[in-house]
Write a structure and sequence with these properties.
Helix content is 38%, strand content 23%. With 270 residues, it is an alpha/beta fold. The chain has 2 domains: 129 residues, Leucine Dehydrogenase, chain A, domain 1 (Rossmann fold); 133 residues, 3-Layer(aba) Sandwich (Rossmann fold). Strand 1, helix 1 and strand 2 form a beta-alpha-beta unit. The chain binds 2'-monophosphoadenosine-5'-diphosphate (ATR).
Length: 270
């Protein structure tokens, strides 16, 4: 029987993860399966236990189970503990559940792959929800001069910045108080999903600024269109999706796939 992995979500129908991991497995010569499982909203724990009982070795976890997966873990990585949520579970040989979050490292690797320097940069992150909390630790570890979090609900940005004080120069505010320019602006809000744009000042981006949207779609998101019209270089979150998957794949298989090739394939399939 081949080794079994899956992604849990609800809904899960549109997940690209089975495709990505199938491409990784083929590329790296790994005999494994990776399926999408729609776990019941009220029983993620039961779904994970049943999967393991049936021989499952590991899983990705997406909305709405990332916090519950955090609680099911026996052993949490340091970055997972700081994120308060996990996207990767590993069923250990000792029977324990190991958990990690690979979203933040995925974002940082994708920025690196695009030649974007975070070291000493002034970085702005838009949004203060779970998606942003999940990436702050690796972003700060990349050594920005300063990282500012701006959110529609100001208190959430201020609170999130306070939680990460130990990791670097982090501040938080609402959108009104926003003052550019920033060399890197990362949209971590869910506004792109509904085609909305957070209110942004004209002075937001530095002359050679980079705009990154953690979302992706066949066409550029409204945020990337806004940034592009102001001369910024734009990057969507497709590469982050592939990089976070590669880090999960590495945790399970101890092999690193060639992410660029897989990103190109997915881009064509969008
Ligand atoms: P996620 O897990 O994707 O982070 P979330 O925790 O619900 O989901 O957070 C969504 C984020 O997108 C929040 O920062 C939210 O702002 P609020 O905290 O003020 O709700 C932000 N967001 C969603 N729609 C937005 C919009 N139209 N304009 C600006 N920000 C938006």
């Amino acid at each position: 029987m081949s080794d079994r992995y899956c992604v849990f979500g609800h809904p899960i129908g549109h997940s690209r993860s089975p495709r990505i991991h199938a491409l990784f497995a083929e590329q790296c010569g790994q005999t494994m399966t990776y399926e999408a499982i729609e776990a019941p909203r009220e029983d993620f724990v039961g779904a994970w236990r049943a999967f393991v009982a049936a021989g499952g070795l590991g899983a990705n976890v997406t909305v709405p189970f990332k916090e519950e997966a955090y609680r099911v873990a026996d052993v949490l990585s340091q970055r997972a503990r700081r994120a308060g949520a996990v996207n990767t579970l590993v069923h250990g040989r000792d029977g324990r559940t190991y958990a990690d979050t690979t979203d933040g490292v995925g974002l940082v690797r994708d920025l690196e792959a695009h030649g974007v320097t975070l070291d000493d940069a002034r970085v702005l992150v838009l949004g203060a929800g779970g998606a942003v909390r999940g990436v702050l630790d690796p972003l700060l570890a990349a050594g920005p001069r300063a990282l500012h979090i701006a959110n529609r609900t100001a208190e959430k940005a201020v609170g999130l910045a306070a939680d990460f004080q130990q990791e670097g120069d982090v501040t938080g505010s609402g959108h009104d108080a926003l003052e550019g320019p920033f060399e890197v602006v990362i949209n971590g809000t869910s506004a792109s999903l509904s085609g909305e744009l957070p209110p942004l000042p004209e002075t937001l981006l530095a002359a050679d600024g980079v705009a990154y949207d953690m979302m992706y779609a066949a066409d550029p998101t409204v945020f990337l269109q806004w940034a592009s019209a102001r001369g910024a270089r734009t990057i969507d979150g497709l590469g982050m999706l592939v990089e976070q998957a590669a880090e999960s794949f590495f945790l399970w298989r101890h092999v690193r796939p060639d992410t660029g090739a897989v990103r190109d394939t997915l881009r064509h399939e969008l």
